[in-house]
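pasting for the record
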Amino acid sequence: MLSPQSLSENDRRLVAAWAADCAERVLLLFEAEVPDDDRPRDGIVRARAFSRGELDAAGEIRRRFVAGRAAGSATSPAARAAAWSAGQASGVAHMGAHALGAAAYAARAAESASPGRGETEVRWQVQHMSSSVRAALRSLPLLGEDPSGPLGSGLLASGVLGDTIRALQAALGSTELD
C-alpha cells in the first residue's frame, strides 16, 4: 500500500516543478560557496525534467539523494540548506511530500543568508503555487499525522523546518500566508 505522502504520479509531476522553483531561488547560495559542485543544480534540472514527463519515477528514485549529499561540500548553513532544498526537490519523483521539504529548506537557506528573508521566501512560495499544486499539496497529511514518509517525525517535523511546513500547509486554502 502506498503512503498517503506519495501522491499520484501526475500530482508528483505537478509539485516537482514548484519544488524546483523553490530550490532554484536559493541555489546561488550554494553555488557561490561551492562553484564546482553541480549536484544541486542537476537535482533541480532533473526535478524539472521529471515534471515534464521526460524522466520516469523509477530512475529518479535511485538518484533522489544525490543533490542533497552536496551539502557536505558546503560550510555555511545557507549553502547547506540550499543543497538540501535541491535534494528534496529531486526526491519528489519518489514521494510528493518532499516538495514541502524543498520549500522549507529553501526558506531556511534564505533566512540563514539574510535574517528576515525566510518569511519573505515562504510568501513567495505560497503565491507561486498554481491551483493544481495547491490541490495536490492539500491532499497530503498534515505534518506529523502520518509516520510513513518525510512528513512523519523526522527532520522536517521539528524546529524551523516544521514551522515552515505548518505555515505552508495552513496557507494552502488561501492566496496569501496569514
